[in-house]
Amino acid sequence: MGLADKKKVILVTDGDRIAKEAVEVAAKNIGARCISCSWGNPTRLTGEQLVDQIIKAPHDPVVVMVDDRGFQGEGPGESAMRYIVQHPDIEVLGVLAVASNTGGVKGVLIDQSVTNQGVLVNGPVDKNGFCCVDGSTGLHGDTVEILREIKLPVVVGIGDIGKMCGEDDANCGAPITTKALQEVLNRSGYFGKSDNTR
Length: 198
Fold this sequence. Notes:
By secondary structure, the protein is an alpha/beta fold. It contains five helices and seven strands.
């Protein structure tokens, strides 16, 4: 399968019920297809099962949720992410790295973050979507440590999806998640590619 034929995927490192609702709305807002069965806290499907769903999706890009629920070391969400990233029929455009209060993690460098007010910033944000003021250079979350190793092309930081002090509520259109997904598309050049259809 050539690069043009590969399924284009955006990963989201959150998968609880509230995140699911917000991601579904945000994916629709940008013309993407959300793999709703990928939700779970932690991730319930294997990487192989998720790839099967991705390949069956009727159009690109495909948004997939992965979640470790605070699992120490490589949890089910990160294992699924690794499988997806390494699959020869998939091109991962980027990832929404979701901040959490998880302790004992090094964090991951991001390209940009979206605050709970929808502002793009160069540094990390916290779980509530506020700019980190503690001097942190990395975004801290429970399903992001693997990003230090697998090196995806675009990493956009974001607070707790569907929440962030009510600013990302699915009933209000999940505007922060929508903006973050759109930023992945913008940075990846996806809509500028001639092989793309929505």
